[in-house]
Write a structure and sequence with these properties.
Radius of gyration of chain A: 14 Å
Strand content of chain A: over 45%
Structural class of chain A: mainly beta
Distance between the termini of chain A: 37 Å
Largest interface: A-B, 30 and 30 residues
Largest sheet of chain B: 7 strands, mixed
Number of strands of chain A: 11
Helix content of chain A: under 10%
Number of helices of chain A: 0
Number of strands of chain B: 11
Oligomer: heterodimer
Radius of gyration of chain B: 13 Å
Helix content of chain B: under 10%
């Protein structure tokens, strides 16, 4: 089962515009992370936000987390053609969750972002 | 260079054969993961391991097997019991189960012919 679900599935914008992607998840989390994947390649880690944080910035990236709504958003400002890729959110359960699920890192379906020059 | 290496990049298998995908990391990470990705889809967790000689089933473990005899190695075997094995397989590692920022290999594309 997929823990995270991204929305929208695909997003097409012009260079210079902002891109916003959303992620919803189902169960309690330890962290929420965002990754980027260029076609046919491995994923690259972008940013991590802990369950006790509400907002985090890294360069042109801004991530928010609302644990009451079990949702997160990734904002890419002033987008560039090189930002064209798929973006995934990933979650892992609290490490005091017990059982064998600790460290189980699960990903959503992803958002395909296309930035037109 | 430190990193995580998957081999081979492309793999062709005949129906009914088992095949093993290699994943090696020199990051001294405790945790390792295997994911499957189908075209246009997200990543689905096959197996994960938090420590040597221990591993857990993910969400789609049926038809797959793993071993973790060494910290740096986490090979995945796709058995003949896996009904639809054609996919892109990704291996990842993280420091441990608390620090789960994952580093990924470049993937192995498996095709059944």
């Amino acid at each position: 089962s997929q823990q995270g679900e991204e929305d929208p599935q695909a997003l097409s914008i012009q260079e210079g515009e902002n891109a916003t992607m959303n992620c919803s998840y189902k169960t309690s989390i330890n962290n929420l992370q965002w990754y980027r994947q260029n076609s046919g390649r491995g994923l690259v880690h972008l940013i991590l936000i802990r369950s006790n944080e509400r907002e985090k910035h890294s360069g042109r990236l801004r991530v928010t987390l609302d644990t009451s709504k079990k949702s997160s958003s990734l904002l890419i400002t002033a987008s560039r053609a090189a930002d064209t890729a798929s973006y995934f959110c990933a979650t892992d359960p609290p490490y005091n969750a017990g059982g064998t699920s600790y460290g189980k890192l699960t990903f959503g379906q992803g958002t395909i972002l296309t930035v037109h020059p | 260079d430190g990193g995580i290496t998957q081999s081979p990049k492309y793999l062709f298998r005949k129906e009914g054969q088992n095949v093993t995908l290699s994943c090696e990391q020199n990051l001294n990470h405790d945790a390792m993961y295997w994911y499957r990705q189908d075209p246009g889809q997200g990543l689905r967790l096959i197996y994960y391991s938090q420590i040597v000689n221990d591993f857990q089933k993910g969400d789609i473990a049926e038809g797959y097997s793993v071993s973790r005899e060494k910290k740096e190695s986490f090979p995945l075997t796709v058995t003949s019991a896996q009904k639809n094995p054609t996919a892109f397989y990704l291996c990842a590692s993280s420091i441990n189960h608390v620090n789960t920022e994952a580093f990924f290999g470049q993937g192995t594309r498996l095709t059944v012919v």
